[in-house]
Amino acid sequence: MTIKKQQGLNEITRYNLYPSAAIQGAPAAGYSSGQAMAAIREVAAETLDRPRAIEYLRRVAESTDPTAYDAVEVLIADANGQGWGGVKSTASQQQQSIMALRALGSAHRVTNQAAATLLDVWIGNHPA
To answer: Is residue 40 assigned to a domain?
Structure first.
């Protein structure tokens, strides 16, 4: 046996056991972080498959980012059939967003107070 030192990746990021990439960005001059996050959400909704888009929105909702409120708002709109990206959601897609909202509510991991309040009101109006 011969051992050879070779450079490679220090870490491989995975999502559901598949290799994935972390996406990082910063707002361009003259734009706020909220505007940058809104642009990322818009692109994500247009390009990611639905399970990944919902997972992304769930993670944003759990973050301390001020756009957590927006993420909860998008999930609620989708759960109510309004969809995103100009496309109405089907019944099964609505169910995916409903399950994500219920999981967020039961885990009590939404730290943004406005987002947590919005989520609590939605759950109160939509008992299981």
So the answer is: no
